[in-house]
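Notebook entry, structure prediction.
Reason for the run: the old model in the group folder had no record of what sequence produced it. Starting over properly, with the input documented here first.
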Amino acid sequence: MKGVGAFLDTETTGLRGSDEVIEFAIVLFRYDITRRELRVIDRYHGLREPSCAIDPGAEKVHGISVDQVRGKRLKDRMVRRILRKADFLIAHNAAFDRRFVEKLYPETQGFRWYCSMNGIRWNKKGFASKGLQQLMANHGIETERGHRALDDVMGALDLLAQQDEQTGRPYLSELLDVESDAAE
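New structure, fully documented this time:
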């Protein structure tokens, strides 16, 4: 099984439906499960000034201040170019990211979405947490900054390329199989 997918992540002004994206990253990758290959072929990362305040609790998590996003805009043309090349989208906690991304890019409503947090049975593999930062730590994956969109996407892709010790299959293989079975 092979194809092209896009992994994306957002950082937002808060957790409510009225909150907005302030950081967005998307990485296009080509994969070949049988050859156990996952290769980045394109990526975009940007900051965005919101029309609402950044919740202090959210800022404490991601560290993005109003000064950092002032006057910033996403390069929508670049994002859409990457989206056109993707067969599906992945996010860690896709339910969260999807509701924000679909507001910015309504064309993502037509995509098949996969969730690397809930689409893999992490607890059955012996992991106490399915949180991305903890899973990366469990697998020896280091990033420069946790809870920042591009670092989280790159770390999550490294995680999905890892082999499950029990099955010997890459986690990406399980994610795509599990989600396909659940949708049918």
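Summary: The domain at 2-178 is CATH 3.30.420.10 (Nucleotidyltransferase; domain 5).
The old model has been moved to the deprecated folder.
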